């Protein structure tokens, strides 16, 4: 690629990394590690298929933003009021559960990182306050730069942990260990929860379209489609690989050890870090805790920023006169949504596994509808031909809708009808 090409990529790079920061959180640190810990490498196929079949629907987000100069929320309105209200309803149904789930994991890890013994709910509140203070000025450039820095720290620490695990430990279970069967009610429920956020909910296509529009406004540069896709693929493929890294860590260190995943966030955090240091040595403790906390803080920061931004754009569509007050609306919604998520945590308590499985399952069950909406939107007559997906991507999109629908019915069959 010539220098002018790299110049364009440099101006475009950012939204894909923000998406990766949002993705590499509970789905990776908790669910992927738990998949490896409980089933070894048996669920690699689920991670790969979830990433493959969600790819088109998430790629359509930045593609739509580049093609139209607008975010997908406005696109849903073009599909009709029903499509817009489906997105609004799904956002409101999952918003507090998703935000609370990522925050409570971050809070539990903050306690380990600092050594300050506070209840995990208190730490969750502190994490939310820090995120709100960092974001209150609504400066996308600062948010963009901070996430990039956090992701560099995270990537380096993760690579160190994975290399150490492969070189020091072996993939073997304790004598007499009986591998669990995934095709049970509890197994299928976990499988759906694993794929629900793998690598990220399909709602994130609309989030990504907002970040892409913001990036174009910030730089004053309209990128080529190839540059936008490079940014997206960098974040998406990176997130998929890191999911496999965490599954491998769980399989190499926890599988067949007789340990079961903790049901509270505080216990999970201690268990997670202790098992790694026992397997890799005390030297790894600081690497693991930095890796884990950086992962979850970047996710929490991204989600804390995203929902006020999404709701602001929903208001813009429903009431166009609000567009002149976007900064003020964002600054009002930012603490309000964070307070709502904190209240959600207080009411639910430290029901760690319940909270995460609830949030991830809701995301998966809503995925087929959102996938169909994204497919229909990117093939809308208003989309110029040069921005339409290639035939292979359109076909993958159709297969993705069938895949997501099939597993939604499998979940309903195993958990409701049996």
Automatic annotation (TrEMBL):
Main localization, broad class: membrane
GO biological processes: iron ion transmembrane transport
Membrane-topology descriptor: Multi-pass membrane protein
Keyword vocabulary terms for this entry: Membrane, Transmembrane, Transmembrane helix
Protein name: Permease
Statement: the UniProt record of this protein carries the keyword Repressor: no
Protein location: Membrane
Keyword Oxidoreductase: no
MF terms (GO), sorted A to Z: cadmium ion transmembrane transporter activity; manganese ion transmembrane transporter activity
């Amino acid at each position: 690629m010539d220098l002018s090409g790299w110049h364009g990529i440099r101006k475009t790079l950012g939204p894909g990394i923000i998406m990766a920061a949002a993705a590499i959180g509970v789905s990776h640190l908790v669910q992927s590690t738990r998949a490896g810990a409980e089933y070894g490498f048996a669920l690699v196929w689920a991670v790969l298929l979830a990433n493959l079949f969600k790819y088109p629907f998430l790629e359509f987000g930045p593609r739509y933003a580049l093609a139209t100069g607008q975010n997908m929320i406005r696109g849903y309105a073009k599909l009709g009021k029903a499509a817009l209200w489906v997105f609004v309803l799904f956002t409101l149904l999952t918003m507090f559960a998703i935000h609370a789930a990522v925050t409570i994991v971050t809070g539990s890890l903050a306690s380990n990182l600092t050594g300050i013994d506070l209840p995990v709910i208190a730490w969750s509140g502190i994490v939310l306050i820090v995120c709100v203070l960092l974001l209150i000025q609504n400066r996308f450039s600062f948010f963009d730069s901070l996430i990039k820095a956090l992701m560099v720290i995270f990537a380096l620490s993760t690579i160190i942990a994975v290399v150490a695990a492969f070189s020091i430990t072996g993939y073997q279970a304790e004598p007499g260990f009986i591998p669990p069967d995934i095709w049970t009610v509890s197994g299928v429920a976990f499988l759906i929860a694993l794929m629900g956020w793998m690598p990220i909910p399909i709602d994130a296509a609309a989030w990504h379209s907002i970040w892409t529009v913001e990036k174009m406004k910030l730089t004053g540069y309209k990128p080529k489609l190839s540059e936008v896709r490079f940014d997206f693929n960098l974040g998406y493929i990176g997130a998929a690989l890191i999911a496999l890294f965490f599954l491998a860590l769980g399989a190499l260190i926890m599988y067949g050890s007789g340990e079961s995943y903790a049901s509270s966030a505080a216990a999970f955090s201690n268990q997670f870090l202790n098992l790694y240091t026992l397997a890799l040595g005390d030297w790894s403790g600081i690497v693991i805790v930095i890796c884990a906390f950086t992962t979850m803080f970047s996710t929490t920061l991204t989600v804390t920023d995203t929902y006020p931004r999404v709701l602001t754009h929903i208001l813009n569509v429903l009431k166009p006169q609000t567009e002149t007050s976007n900064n003020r609306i964002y600054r009002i919604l930012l603490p309000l949504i964070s307070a709502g998520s904190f209240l959600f945590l207080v009411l639910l308590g430290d029901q760690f596994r319940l909270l995460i499985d609830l949030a991830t399952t809701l995301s998966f069950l809503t995925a087929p509808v959102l996938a169909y909406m994204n497919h229909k939107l990117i093939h809308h007559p208003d989309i110029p031909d040069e921005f339409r997906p290639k035939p292979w991507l359109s076909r993958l999109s159709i297969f993705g809708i069938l895949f997501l629908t099939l597993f939604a019915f499998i979940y309903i069959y195993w958990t409701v009808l049996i």
